[in-house]
Write a structure and sequence with these properties.
CATH superfamily of the largest domain in chain B: MetI-like
CATH architecture of the largest domain in chain A: 3-Layer(aba) Sandwich
Distance between the termini of chain B: 17 Å
CATH class of the largest domain in chain B: Mainly Alpha
Distance between the termini of chain A: 50 Å
Order of helices and strands of chain B: HHHHHHHHHHH
Oligomer: heterodimer
Number of strands of chain A: 11
Structural class of chain B: mainly alpha
Strand content of chain B: under 5%
Largest sheet of chain A: 5 strands, mixed
Helix content of chain B: over 70%
Number of domains of chain B: 2
Number of strands of chain B: 0
Number of domains of chain A: 2
Number of helices of chain A: 14
Strand order of the largest sheet of chain A: 7-6-8-5-9
CATH class of the largest domain in chain A: Alpha Beta
CATH topology of the largest domain in chain B: MetI-like fold
Shape of chain B: flat
Number of helices of chain B: 11
Structural class of chain A: alpha/beta
């Protein structure tokens, strides 16, 4: 009996750990990520913009492996603010996770490139050919589904060709013509691939989507907003300021941002001014993503009202 | 096998046979009852704790997991994933056992080869298959081939180590006896050496099964190497990214069930019909 009781106790403690999080009012945990689209977060950190609006803020920057891990950490209450692609955000939102968009981050040119001259359109993809995306349910995977719905009539027609591979690995595999036949990716990898020899684009994401769309959003948990609305407001203001800097004057933060992307200043500026790269706080295309994902069966929660998933 | 065991114990201890039988029975009932009530308690905790502590988004209640398991099994792709995983693992195990058999035989025949194998084993045995995966993928590419190689790697060394330990432990008197009875070559190996070494070989196979199963699931997950028609590892990986927590647990349950079924039905029955029947166990 004693043993059973102690087992129950251990289980209770384990479950308890999931449900409690930092109770410090001035503390905020932000997930840090690297990539051109996440540059506003770097600017916000290095220029101490949150402290500008909320001097007592205790900011903790969490390093996590992937967008999936950030989402899980937010669900577990370990991270308050984190960024991800719109479809991954919607997947968890559809599961009624307690978080909403604090601010959109950027629009970017995305697309699928191939190293096989015979592949001119999605119709030329044969069984067994491999298309790399970062993960199932990623924005790249959903855009590929949209393209195959458009061209092949079936959103999941190419799901059997999709494999999961991190951007850098897949880009070098594509450029070196090993392992994979195509790669659906985002900046800066798409720029590197298009610059390389013998690689051409098969799918342009804006064409597949039917217009421009927000690529990344920064989401914040409801727990954080309730705990300290003022700090929430400060983070939001700081983020929007950082987004403005990245859009209007990326050169002024080159020495902060370029090293985190492992780029020299010149390439960094070239990428910032690439057609289609836009740091913007307006949310575009999210409802269309949601509608498509519902119809294709990836999620199961609809809304027509953007405020259902935006703070 | 029960009677066989009993007879030996009856002879050696000289105890009352029916008393033994009763004791064994009640012990067996007690043991089963403990196991079952533990499971029931676990499932009850699993059912109610997540809701009480409001962590049901992270750990869904038990009935939802079972529902997801059931629904995915019949309407989803779970069965296909299970089939794919089993195909990979049995290919790997078959090739692994064959290779282990050949290499062990060579070790027994040639002392020099045994020395070389000693070195190879001490290099390869501690190396986790997952650590080797990037190298294997360079050689064999993404997909099923790489995973099968990882499975073979993860079972080959424990099989050889155990088989060699088994053959080395055969008392000399047994082989001498066999030779005196006129046995030679294959007949000696088949009738004397293999039965004698069998407890070791069997525990090698048990280790091999557990290790290959783990290697398979983790290889599929770490690299998502086998694509969307891939096995159970890929299924769990996929459900993670669609935040389908119930589906994730459904995948885990499938992994557990297959592991248990093979262990209980296949391996234990081999054990009962050989080692235990012959009255030898390690």
């Amino acid at each position: 009996m004693k043993k059973i009781l102690s087992l129950i106790l251990i289980a209770l403690i384990t479950f308890g750990m999931f449900s409690c999080s930092g109770s410090d009012k001035d503390k905020v945990v932000i997930a840090q990520q690297f990539g051109l689209g996440y540059a506003p977060l770097v600017v916000m950190k290095e220029m101490q913009l949150i402290e500008k609006y909320y001097p007592n803020a205790k900011i903790e920057w969490a390093q996590l492996g992937s967008g999936g891990a950030i989402r899980e950490a937010m669900a577990a209450g370990q991270v308050d603010v984190g960024s991800m692609g719109v479809p991954p955000f919607l997947i968890a939102w559809a599961k009624e996770y307690d978080y909403k968009v604090m601010s959109p981050l950027c629009e970017m040119p995305l697309g699928m490139q191939t190293n096989n001259p015979d592949i001119k359109s999605l119709k030329d993809i044969k069984p067994g050919m491999k298309i790399a995306t970062p993960s199932p349910g990623s924005i790249q995977h959903i855009l590929l589904s949209m393209a195959s719905k458009k061209e092949l009539g079936d959103a999941k027609a190419l799901d059997k060709n999709v494999i999961a591979m991190a951007h850098p690995d897949a880009a070098s595999a594509l450029i070196n013509k090993v392992e994979i036949d195509a790669h659906f990716t985002s900046p800066p990898y798409i720029f590197k691939e298009l610059d390389a020899e013998g690689i051409h684009q098969v799918v342009d994401a804006n064409e597949a989507f039917g217009g421009p769309f927000t690529f990344l959003v920064t989401a914040a948990t409801g727990k954080f907003k309730n705990r300290n609305p003022e700090l929430f407001g400060a983070v939001e203001k700081a983020l929007k300021e950082a987004i403005g800097i990245m859009e209007n004057d990326p050169g002024s933060v080159a020495d902060i941002v370029a090293p985190t992307l492992k780029l020299d200043t010149e390439t960094y500026l070239k990428y910032c001014n690439w057609p289609g790269v836009k740091f913007d706080t307006n949310l575009r295309g999210a409802l269309k993503f949601l509608d498509f994902m519902n119809k294709a069966g990836y999620v199961n929660r609809q809304t027509d009202n953007i405020s259902d998933f935006m703070w | 096998m029960l009677t066989g065991k009993l007879i030996t114990s009856v002879i050696s201890c000289g105890r009352d046979r029916s008393l033994m039988l009763n004791n064994q029975r009640s012990e067996k009932i007690k043991s089963t009852a403990t196991k079952v009530s533990f499971l029931v308690a676990l499932f009850l905790l699993w059912e109610f704790l997540p809701t009480w502590t409001q962590s049901d988004k992270i750990i869904p209640p038990f009935h939802e997991v079972i529902k997801a398991f059931w629904v995915n099994l019949w309407t989803g792709d779970l069965l296909k994933h299970v089939g794919y995983s089993l195909e990979l693992i049995f290919t790997g195990i078959a090739i692994g056992i064959l290779l282990a058999f050949v290499l062990t035989a060579l070790c027994i025949i040639s002392k020099r080869f045994n020395d070389v194998m000693d070195v190879v084993i001490s290099i390869m045995h501690p190396l986790p298959g997952i650590a080797l995966l990037p190298v294997v993928m360079l050689l064999a590419g993404l997909g099923a081939k790489s995973i099968v190689i990882i499975i073979i790697h993860s079972i080959l060394w424990p099989l050889i180590v155990n088989a060699l330990a088994g053959f080395n432990s055969i008392p000399k008197i047994q082989t001498e006896l066999g030779k005196n009875l006129g046995m030679k070559g294959l007949k000696l190996i088949w009738l004397v050496m293999i039965p004698n070494a069998f407890p070791y070989i069997l525990s090698g196979i048990k280790i091999a099964w557990a290790r290959s199963w783990r290697a398979l699931v983790s290889a599929e997950m770490v690299f998502g190497a086998s694509g969307m028609i891939g096995g159970l590892g890929w299924y769990i990986y996929k459900t993670r990214f669609f935040m389908d927590v119930s589906g994730m647990f459904a995948g885990l349950i499938s992994v557990i069930i297959i592991g248990m079924v093979v262990d209980e039905l296949v391996l234990k029955s081999i054990e009962r019909n050989t080692v235990q029947k012959w009255g030898m166990s390690v």
